[in-house]
Fold this protein.
Amino acid sequence: MTSDLVYGSWAQGFMAGWNYALFSEYHFYRDLGVKSADEENFHIRQYCDAHPLATFVEAVIDLWFTLPLKPQSN
């Protein structure tokens, strides 16, 4: 679905930017590769269904906190 691609791309960009800031400041990052695009879209859809008054970014933030936190590797 086209909207999944557009919104999924935005979510990936948002999380990548947040990851960069987290890594730059604290030397940790969230593993963005642990879930497939379909799994991420499913998570976001479930969140939106359960929270119809929430914003899209809130759904993406909820997804973000399900991703494993990893330390900087040397």
Notes: Residues 23 and 29 are 5 Å apart (CA to CA). Helices lie at 2-26, 37-50, 56-64. The two ends are 40 Å apart (CA to CA). Strands lie at 28-30, 69-71.
